[in-house]
Amino acid sequence: xxxxxxxxxxxxxxxxxxxxxxxxxxxxxxxxxxxxxxxxxxxxxxxxxxxxxxxxxxxxxxxxxxxxxxxxxxxxxxxxxxxxxxxxxxxxxxxxxxxxxxxxxxxxxxxxxxxxxxxxxxxxxxxxxxxxxxxxxxxxxxxxxxxxxxxxxxxxxxxxxxxxxxxxxxxxxxxxxxxxxxxxxxxxxxxxxxxxxxxxxxxxxxxxxxxxxxxxxxxxxxxxxxxxxxxxxxxxxxxxxxxxxxxxxxxxxxxxxxxxxxxxxxxxxxxxxxxxxxxxxxxxxxxxxxxxxxxxxxxxxxxxxxxxxxxxxxxxxxxxxxxxxxxxxxxxxxxxxxxxxxxxxxxxxxxxxxxxxxxxxxxxxxxxxxxxxxxxxxxxxxxxxxxx
Length: 388
What we know:
The protein has 388 residues and is mostly helical. It has one domain (5-378). The protein is built from 14 helices and no strands. The radius of gyration is 21 Å and the shape is globular. The chain starts with 22 loop residues before the first helix and ends in a 10-residue tail after the last helix. Residues 235-379 form the DUF418 domain. The chain crosses the membrane at residues 31-54, 74-93, 105-125, 131-148, 155-174, 215-234, 246-265, 271-291, 312-331, 337-356.
């Protein structure tokens, strides 16, 4: 039997329609997407992702150094950590909403398998920096935990974070390229990505996948841990009633922020340094949810909610836009631009998406790719246009 969103039981489902969404989650997702955009743009579309693993000459201009420093210190890893955490929150929300059907695991498995297919299309036909495939696989792995006790979720998250910290020191059969390979590959990347045809760019992107695999393997336990922490946060009621959780959110945000600052100051000296971005991302999440509980602040942040509700569509659009700007089948600017003008470009694209997302959602319930995802999940065309 086919289901649509509107045919599911009213208890916890119809009430979770778009007009009843928790704005703070959408706002956080919209803000996190800015960080994801900037990191991808500065470190992967502008230059080869492998360039950061070679010693780099210092930027001569203060402005260029400031942009790189901001992206590295404020956004890199932290934006992706927040995005992963929110994906876990979303899984827990959907599980709660679908539970009255008695088939929540079935529907979420379908949802994640469809995400896997869409992610593979993005990975193989648009850009090899895709995170959707990893998120779909991680989601399928944590799916059985959605019905677990909160204590089990907490211990699982801690175990996964511990694995993330020790994994680089384990003797895994995943060789990382040496400096000679990196230098040669970056030279080829500069030539192919800047001047190659669409087919040549795709083929070269596919050839990079084995070298990118170790990066995904080492970050995967952290992604799983953040999914589980997001599930735990939702189950703990931290998003459902921010006003009632004000004390917990404030205390948690301050403690996590302090831990993140201390671990960042420790640099690479300690084993726990890898937890700094996680602590800082979760601290930002707690404090922003707390701030969004204030009506004036929420009104000021609401424009980001529209972008957050269309995060899937906007993420794919960013790949298409930046591919057309930096790769040879478009304007061919790969390897040619300094960080500062690229940062300005990113701000402009993000601002445009912010405006277009608000306009789109005045007329439609979902972004186009979100609508496609839901339609494929339920096996029936979902209502798209808003009722007038």
